[in-house]
Design a protein that fits this description.
Layout (H helix, E strand, L loop, with lengths): L2 H15 L8 E4 L6 H15 L8 E4 L6 H10 L6 E6 H8 L11 E17 L7 H10 L5 E4 L6 H12 L9 E4 L3 H9 L5 E5 L4 H6 L2 E6 L24 E9 L4 H16 L1 H9 L3 E6 L1 H20 L5
Parallel strand pairs: 1-2, 1-3, 5-6, 5-7
Antiparallel strand pairs: 3-9, 4-7, 4-8, 4-9, 4-10
Length: about 325
């Protein structure tokens, strides 16, 4: 789908949804009700109002289409200076932007204001796997790139596929196109493939494997966070094992690219207030999110780096030219 089609479609979606008050804060969830983006808008929106950071309840607009591309196009083309607009985002947003999945749109057309929680990435093997550590697995792949097949819940080139490739790149291994990856229909299928012995490892998110950890069916070789995850302190990070990789499915927001620096800073402060609240801490625990707070300019710089790295990896494996 082309960028111009996004624009035309987005206008129809906005007209169908009805006009929004210029004074009310609106949060666009780029998907139908339910799921991560909808949760982000509804939970952050509620807490913003409860804390008094906004004067009226936040209006939630579900704008599904093109995996987030319809919402992105609407913001860029029609609401570029709307300082009362926030948009739910995640790692899927930056991955799609890096892979040019939004019809020519680029990450610098909006401003990424912050992330305040994340579903940690994990590398998992069956409980009876010979791999006792991430180093064991990496050494095996370096010796024979076909020795380990990963199962993941995203298509080839998606976020789950990129996680082990980032680790191998950090290990100095460059022949990443030789690494075997099988994309299946979601994390549950991926972990079943691994437990059943059809693949040697699973790459996914912590929320997908908690039940399997508790049942003793899997061994988590690494969690891809900056620090160990509360409640799962026995699982080492990739960083601890010598691989400087952080890969989390973060939950956060972007705002229109044309707002002022002062307006951006105001949103950063509001989001930080949500992150610091007891309500958000409770919401993270209830929804299986790990602490991951990057707000304001630091987050924007981090996103820029992630987009560049994702684009580089995607070119190497042939997802983009």
């Amino acid at each position: 789908m082309t960028y111009s089609v996004f624009k035309a479609a987005s206008l129809g979606a906005v007209l169908a949804l009805g006009a929004t008050s210029a004074m009310a804060t609106e949060c666009i969830a780029p998907a139908n009700p339910g799921g991560g983006w909808d949760f982000t808008c509804r939970q952050i929106g509620k807490i913003l109002y409860d804390l008094g950071e906004v004067d009226a309840p936040v209006q939630i607009t579900n704008m599904a289409g093109a995996g987030g591309g319809l919402a992105f196009s609407t913001v860029v083309n029609e609401r570029d200076t709307d300082a009362d607009l926030i948009v739910a985002a995640s790692s899927a947003t930056t991955t799609r932007l890096a892979q040019n999945a939004f019809g020519g749109a680029t990450a610098d057309q909006v401003r990424f204001v912050g992330a305040i929680g994340a579903d940690p990435g994990v590398i998992v093997v069956a409980a009876d796997s010979p791999f006792q550590s991430l180093n064991d697995m990496v050494d095996s792949i370096i010796a024979d790139p076909t020795s380990v097949a990963f199962a993941g819940g995203s298509a080839a080139g998606g976020f789950d596929h990129l996680k082990p490739l980032q680790i191998l790149k950090a290990a100095g291994f460059d022949d990443i196109t030789a690494v075997r990856y099988i994309g299946v229909d979601g994390g549950a299928d991926a972990i079943t493939q691994t437990i059943g012995g059809f693949t040697q490892a699973m790459t996914g998110d912590m929320s997908e494997i908690v039940g399997f950890i508790n049942s003793g069916e899997v061994r988590v070789l690494a969690v891809l966070t900056e620090e160990r995850v509360p409640g799962f302190e026995s699982i080492p990070t990739a960083r601890e094992q010598g691989y400087d990789v952080v890969a989390v499915n973060w939950r956060g927001l972007y705002v229109p690219g044309g707002i002022s620096d002062a307006e951006f800073d105001t949103w950063a402060a509001k989001l930080q207030a949500v992150a610091d609240s007891a309500e958000w801490q409770e919401a993270m625990v209830a929804n299986g999110l790990a602490p991951f707070t990057k707000v304001g300019g630091d987050f924007q710089s981090w996103v820029d780096g992630v987009v560049a790295q994702t684009a580089e990896l995607s070119r190497e494996i042939g997802v983009i030219q």
